[in-house]
Design goal:
Layout lengths: L1 H12 L7 E4 L2 E4 H19 L3 H7 L4 H16 L5 H24 L3 H27 L17 H21 L4 H16 L3 H18 L3 H4 L1 H28 L4 H15 L3 H6 L6 H13 L14 H30 L8 H15 L9 H15 L4 H5 L1
Antiparallel strand pairs: 1-2
Helix pairs in contact: 1-2, 1-6, 2-5, 4-5, 4-15, 5-17, 6-7, 6-8, 7-8, 7-9, 7-16, 9-11, 9-16, 12-14, 15-16, 16-17
Length: 401
């Protein structure tokens, strides 16, 4: 299993390898897909060699998140006609890669300690990629008009979404044990990179999750210090002022802002949901962009800011459009379990990786109110992995047996 673990560490460190795109014959692919394909072969060889193949297959029934997402996709495909087959195939590849990677991760790293280590490697990889993005933009490549950090990506918010879970991870790890200064350094570096993306969802979501952790921990010296409380209050005020200045004020003063664009997207989305079939079954897996482009002008009564919108910028709307009312119910169930796990955790209980994963998953749900991670190779892998790690009924102890 050693080679399997090393390759998985490599894949977690280079989650952005999907940016290296090429063709094998006439088939378009990327480095991430090739590496995940190799990971599958190595994993299969490892479980056959260790004579755990049948047990690993039996373990699949425990992965109800993966089975749920794949089942909803198959049901949606069977019930709703696919208009844009290219978008369908692209989203299907994203989901399959994410589910396979998450399954291999959990079946390979079975202890809380192993999972901490693996996620730390992924976090260091995110930090390295963030610094690469800084160099990429400083060299004059793909520079945004507003100078937000985005590197080779097509939007700064994607980079912010990718960096933030790891910023939260290292911040919580530092607050858990302030003697380990490396976690603080990693958190500071990722925090600065995250700020450079000027993603309000990242900034606000991470602040809420970290504050919730500190209040749940309850015995933190940070909360007992008047100075620390004053600093936290000042940060909250700063975040609120930044959101107002960069997001709300431009909406009032100009005809365009990210909020203005979201307003058009949400208006069109709710109009689509007025059709009973769309509400019950969705518009089809990976079909939102096609449906939006067809209906947005008629709904708004004028030219929209953008015709091509990958997703509805809201995770609730996304699950309804992808999977219908069953998908929406599935999401609510996941959120309910996530909140239950967080608020039922007591400070005198062990803080294993499952508890930490719940805090990280909560960030995705908070940021998901204004964006969605479902259409990006790296983000979807992290989301499915965190859902599996935090919501599975099986404990780490059971997994080790």
């Amino acid at each position: 299993m050693k080679i399997n673990k090393l390759l998985l560490y490599f894949n977690l460190f280079f989650l952005q390898s999907y940016l290296v795109r090429f063709k094998i014959g006439n088939f378009p692919t990327n480095l991430q897909e090739v590496l995940i394909g190799l990971q599958c072969l190595v994993f299969l060889f490892a479980i056959i060699k260790n004579k755990t193949f049948l047990q690993t297959i039996k373990n699949l029934k425990r992965h109800w998140v993966i089975l749920g997402l794949l089942g909803l996709t198959l049901l949606s495909t069977a019930l709703v006609p696919t208009e844009n087959k290219i978008d369908f195939l692209r989203h299907s590849r994203f989901l399959i890669i994410s589910c396979v990677t998450s399954f291999i991760f959990i079946e390979t790293f079975k202890t809380s300690e192993e999972r901490f280590k693996a996620f730390k490697i992924a976090g260091i990889g995110a930090m390295v990629f963030g610094f690469f993005c800084v160099a990429y933009n400083l060299l004059g490549y793909n520079v945004a008009y507003d100078h937000r950090l985005l590197g080779p990506l097509d939007a700064a918010v994607y980079l912010g979404y990718y960096l933030t879970p790891f910023f939260i991870f290292f911040a919580i790890e530092f607050f858990k044990d302030t003697k380990v200064k490396s976690n603080l350094l990693y958190a500071i570096a990722l925090g600065i990179l995250m700020l450079a993306t000027v993603s309000m969802g990242s900034l606000t979501g991470s602040l809420i999750v970290i504050l919730l952790y500190l209040f749940k921990k309850n015995d933190s010296k940070i909360l007992k210090s008047k100075t620390a409380r004053a600093i936290i209050g000042a940060i909250c005020l700063l975040v609120s002022a930044t959101v107002f200045y960069l997001k709300i004020l431009p909406t009032i003063q100009t005809n365009y802002s990210s909020i203005s664009e979201r307003e058009q997207i949400w208006t069109t989305s709710f109009s689509l949901l007025k059709t009973p079939k769309n509400l019950a079954l969705g518009v089809g897996f990976g079909q939102f962009q096609e449906q939006y482009a067809q209906h947005v002008k008629a709904v708004l009564g004028h030219e929209p800011l953008d015709y091509y919108v990958l997703q509805p910028h809201n995770i609730f709307l996304l699950f309804i459009f992808q999977f219908g009312i069953l998908g929406f119910t599935f999401l609510l169930f996941c959120i309910n379990r996530n909140l239950h796990n967080i608020f039922s955790w007591k400070k005198d209980q062990p803080f294993d990786f499952r508890i930490l994963a719940n805090f990280l998953l909560l960030y995705f749900f908070i940021h998901g109110l204004i964006d969605t991670p479902f259409f990006k190779n790296d983000l979807l892998i992290i989301l499915v992995l965190l859902m599996e790690l935090s919501l599975l009924k099986t404990s780490n102890k059971t997994l080790e047996n």
